[in-house]
Design goal:
about 15% strand, Helicase, Ruva Protein, domain 3, about 35% helix, Rossmann fold, alpha/beta
Length: about 325
């Protein structure tokens, strides 16, 4: 069968047309995907925020086109074989509710691309934006940070960002999951940071001995049991151990706050992302004066504590 001429209508003798025959251009495919995603009431929480953005990303990625330049390709005719690939991805996203990042094996934080698969949660840390600002005024000089720790590193994304923003720092990145550490090692290698980022298997601080850091950063599991029961299907593809943190979502956060002083330098800071759990955190540690970090897009999902606020366990 010949390719359609883009300017002709799809007039064939068939009584029924498959999407493969009727959807000819990038524009057609994106429109179709957007409709399918909306119709299926998909959930978007893994890098895009709505059906259109997700459609654009999946269509462009599958066609090996730059994902930030839609305009030049909008009306390009797509050969049948490529169209079939795009339709298969759209179908899997709808029928299996797989987050787009797992379908494409990549996730983006700003301009940073990371390899991901079902062994790690999809990177979406609010800490990414705060790192851009460098945690001023608590860290006055990024060059002065020589040791930093990424606790619960998952894909290794925050460890790699730490290495980028603190060029003089040696970074330790720990996780309890062998699977996560495998993915992290791939990302560390992709960025050529094997001499800067050290990956360590550890249950929170257990394997760290007396190591001390100027900055401890963590995006730990913090989902409450009640919230776990209500998660959209998309999240069920992610490793449970990277999300669930007991009844009140505080199992890991308690251990981090309890053990951090022993691993911070005297001027060090602890920065932890806890999602919507501010009330739970403050209720669990009424004696601590948390600083809640905010920026343009989100509010109060990340707390900061100085070493001198913490008691050595």
């Amino acid at each position: 069968m010949h390719e359609h001429d883009c300017n002709e209508n799809c007039d064939h003798d068939h009584h029924e047309h498959s999407p493969l025959e009727e959807l000819v251009t990038v524009r057609d495919l994106i429109r179709y995907a957007t409709s399918q995603f909306n119709r299926a009431h998909l959930f978007f929480g893994h890098g895009t925020t709505d059906a259109f953005d997700e459609a654009v990303y999946l269509v462009l990625h599958t066609l090996h086109l730059p994902i930030d330049r839609l305009e030049p390709f909008f009306d390009a005719c797509i050969p049948t074989a490529e169209r079939a690939e795009v339709l298969e991805i759209i179908e899997r996203r709808v029928n299996e509710r797989i987050p787009a990042a797992y379908l494409t094996k990549e996730a983006w934080l700003g301009d940073f691309r990371f390899y991901v698969d079902e062994r790690v949660i999809v990177p979406r840390s609010f800490c990414f934006e705060l790192l851009e600002e460098g945690f001023e005024p608590w860290i006055r000089e990024p060059a002065a940070v020589t040791r930093a720790l990424d606790l619960c590193t998952g894909s290794g994304c925050l460890a790699i960002l730490l290495a980028h923003h603190f060029p003089n720092a040696q970074i330790d990145a720990i996780d309890l999951s062998d699977d996560a550490l495998d993915v992290a090692s791939q990302n560390v290698a992709d960025y050529g940071l094997q001499d800067v980022v050290r990956l360590i298997k550890s249950d929170v601080f257990d394997a760290l001995g007396d190591e001390r850091y100027d900055l401890i950063l963590s995006n730990p599991p913090y989902v409450t049991e009640e919230s776990m029961q209500a998660l959209p299907d998309e999240y069920l593809h992610e490793p449970r151990m990277a999300l669930a943190a007991g009844d009140d979502g505080m199992d890991i956060v308690r251990r981090i706050i309890g053990g951090a002083r022993r691993h911070l330098s005297s001027e060090g800071i602890l920065v932890v992302e806890v999602g919507h759990n501010r009330d739970l955190v403050e209720a669990a540690f009424p004696q601590l004066e948390f600083v809640w970090l905010t920026n343009a897009s989100e509010e109060e999902k990340v707390f900061l504590l100085r070493a001198d606020q913490l008691i050595e366990a």
